């Protein structure tokens, strides 16, 4: 899964950007209050485990 696909999924589920970082952005799911860091490299391919962890941290999975 690419970072851009993960961000698209997060936005679709109601998450939004909380804060910009130098290498990662902080995203929050307001319905659950959960926070996760997502890398800023939009075209980069995320390892499956990393993508699953981010989705779990945001409460998307």
What would your notes on this structure say?
The protein is an alpha+beta fold and 61 residues long. The protein has a single domain, classed as Hypothetical protein (Metal Transport, Frataxin, Chain A, 2-Layer Sandwich). It has helices at 3-12, 48-58, and strands at 16-20, 24-29, 34-39. A 3-stranded antiparallel β-sheet has the order 1-2-3. A hairpin with a 3-residue loop joins strand 1 and strand 2 (24-29). The chain is globular and about 30 Å long. The protein starts with a helix and ends with a helix.
What is the structure about, briefly put?
With 61 residues, this protein is an alpha+beta fold.
Strand content: 25-35%
Q: How large is the count of helical segments? A: 2
How would you state the average pLDDT, rounded?
94
Distance between the termini: 15 Å
Please give the structural blueprint.
Blueprint: H1 3-12, E1 16-20, E2 24-29, E3 34-39, H2 48-58
Antiparallel strand pairs: 1-2, 2-3
């Amino acid at each position: 899964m690419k970072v851009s696909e993960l961000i698209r999924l997060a936005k679709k589920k109601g998450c939004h950007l909380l804060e910009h970082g130098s290498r990662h952005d902080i995203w929050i799911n307001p319905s659950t209050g959960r926070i996760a860091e997502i890398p800023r490299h939009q075209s980069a391919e995320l390892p499956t485990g990393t993508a699953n962890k981010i989705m779990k941290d945001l409460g998307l999975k």
